[in-house]
Design goal:
alpha+beta; 4-stranded antiparallel beta sheet; elongated
Length: 187
């Protein structure tokens, strides 16, 4: 399910009407780029992810898709011959930040030691306004810069250009908008 609608993009960038047939792909691309930049999943869906635990005193894991709506199961020693399925009293969930705390013990140590199945992420109706604006700005960046992606301004005679500053594949102004949504520990 898309986090933005074509009507939202058209309201943000009225000149996008000529490219209406490409807007669904553009919305998907902008969402994927923002997810990569923030090292997390934004679109609400069922998730199953393994977690490496390198620290024998680890009490906290961060999930990639949050806010978390529900945890289906958590298994420790997930790659072993007898994984242990935890019960709800074995952990505490901070659903808003996607943090799982191990109650009264440490997380099982090892590569892909913990398997978590859950539902997390935003829907179009729960998407925070700041994140919505960042996604719309990414769409606008592509639509208004077609053929000149990365050019901030150009002289009338075409002899002089000023270029945008990027953080990875994201323009710096959009990266600043995405900063509050970056996953903990994301570079």
């Amino acid at each position: 399910m898309a986090l933005l609608t074509t009507d939202q993009v058209l309201d943000w960038v009225p000149t996008a009407e000529a490219h209406r047939h490409k807007l669904d792909d553009l919305i998907a691309w902008a969402t994927e780029l923002a997810e990569q930049h923030c090292d997390r999943v934004f679109v609400s869906a069922a998730q199953t992810e393994y977690h490496d635990v390198d620290d024998p005193r680890c009490k906290c894991l961060q999930l990639r898709a949050y806010p978390v709506a529900a945890v289906t199961y958590i298994k420790e020693d997930a790659q072993g011959t007898s994984p242990t399925t935890l019960v709800a009293t074995d952990y505490t969930l901070d659903s808003a930040r996607g943090l799982l705390y191990r109650n009264g013990a440490y997380w099982y140590e090892g590569k892909q030691a913990v398997l978590v199945s859950y539902t997390g992420g935003y829907s179009a109706t729960t998407l925070p306004g700041g994140l919505r604006r960042a996604l719309l700005q990414l769409c606008a960046h592509v639509l208004t810069g077609r053929g000149n992606v990365g050019v901030a301004s150009e002289s009338a005679d075409g002899q002089s250009q000023t270029y945008l500053t990027y953080l990875g594949a994201v323009p710096q102004d959009v990266a600043a908008m995405l900063a509050p949504y970056r996953r903990l520990g994301a570079g």
